[in-house]
Design brief:
single chain; 187 residues; alpha/beta; Rossmann fold; 5-stranded parallel beta sheet; 49% helix; globular; disordered N terminus
Length: 187
């Protein structure tokens, strides 16, 4: 549980690429008063923007989340941190949960997510595009780690793509999350 009795309720959202993690994070930042950190954006620049990068780096080195969460608590707003993180960092989920952070996994059918990934990358300048082969490698890792993901995010796995393979609206994702979490219903 959080170290402070009146600590804001923080969220960690991970998962399959192009399933709405950043979309929801941005929406929560704009509409619900959350501080949004996209761990993948420009080398983690969002950590610097809100002033918690040193604590994040120490967390990744130590595996202990308390100092990072205390730094985030000092922001005075709830945090939504999204990261399509590699398997080497699965260790961060339990310490975050221990500090009272709700951890969620966004998933989607591989072919649909791959299509959304390709569309997203086509919109970027060519020099900034991520090769689709890296998407395939990440999905291979995710599929191999399925049982571990199920254990880490038990009860907090959401389909980020609709039945047509499109990203669900952030309002819809948030409604599903709040319907499944007593703590989010109260916030």
């Amino acid at each position: 549980m959080p170290s402070y009795p009146n600590a804001p309720h923080h969220l960690f959202i991970a998962g399959v690429p192009c399933t709405g993690k950043s979309l929801l994070g941005k929406w929560l930042g704009k509409n619900c008063g959350y501080v949004h950190i996209d761990a993948e954006r420009k080398g983690g620049v969002d950590f610097d923007t809100v002033g918690v990068h040193p604590e994040w780096v120490r967390f990744l080195r130590s595996g202990t989340a308390e100092e990072f969460i205390r730094a985030v608590d000092r922001l005075g707003k709830p945090l939504v941190l999204n990261w399509g993180f590699p398997k080497e960092y699965f260790f961060i989920v339990l310490p975050l949960k221990h500090e009272g952070v709700d951890a969620w996994w966004f998933t989607g059918e591989r072919g649909a997510a791959r299509g959304a990934f390709g569309e997203r990358e086509e919109k970027r300048p060519e020099a900034e595009r991520i090769p689709v082969g890296l998407f395939d490698q990440q999905m291979d890792q995710i599929e191999r780690q399925g049982p571990i993901i199920e254990l880490l995010f038990r009860g907090r796995i959401i389909k980020g793509l609709d039945s047509h393979g499109r990203q669900r609206k952030p309002e819809e994702l948030w409604e599903e999350m709040t319907s499944r979490s007593e703590r989010l219903k109260k916030s």
